[in-house]
Amino acid sequence: MGIFGWGKDETQEASDRAAGQVQEAARSGNAGSALERARQADEGGLSGAASRFLERLLDVGIDGRGPFESARTVADKALAKAGGDPEEAIRIIQRDHRRLGAAGGFVTGLGGFFTMPVALPANVLEFYLLATRMTAATARIRGYDIDQPQIRSAVLLTLVGADSDDLLKKAGVFAAGGKLTSVALERLPAPALMVLNKAIAFRLLGRLGSGVIAKLGRAVPVVGGVIGGGVDVYMLSRIANQAETEFPRGGAAEVPQVGGGAAGGR
């Protein structure tokens, strides 16, 4: 059993159940029954934890809150600082997020918004918020509309890495063009995307409960902080590379233009 009261097998099963209900939600146009069955199948609060965690990633990681700037703002500032060069802007975004990952501590400034059904270590929240924003900002620089539900789901899929292939297969979503294309071109309706997002959240919680991030969250404050920061930087670098692959140049929207936003990095 993981440190949050459930094991990786439990989160995997919950994720597989939700993924298996994506096509049903797509056909019916209603996510309610599929999500309700997922809640009924879970008696330990796992479904509530996944919903709350997912809400944080989307509402804060992409849209921003308080001092935590949105992915749109971060992308526009980086593009302005890079003089309109998209690839340089992505390098700036990656560099800034690695620095934040190494430093940590910003979640404490966001107050009670981060009350969760389970006691997630602060560095866990920080890591996934940074990873979500970095990925979404990369997508925006590459020309994708991060307000579109399909693109937001693709951002979340990037966070689970290799698991995204398995998730999409179980969800019945296939395409030769890669994970992003398979979600965006499938044109899954909003109810189906809601169920897919829930499946992604279950997978992420499974990693939190049994992986190295969770262990570092309970490490000795000084030593754990140093080691944890190094691991976060390494993992952010891996996700950054994945984001560049999943969001190739020439997305569905125009690349944002320089001007109008404040220039400069953090």
UniProtKB/TrEMBL annotation:
Residues 1-40 are annotated as: Disordered. Residues 7-16 have a biased composition (Basic and acidic residues). It holds the Pfam family EcsC. This is EcsC family protein. It comes from Intrasporangium calvum.
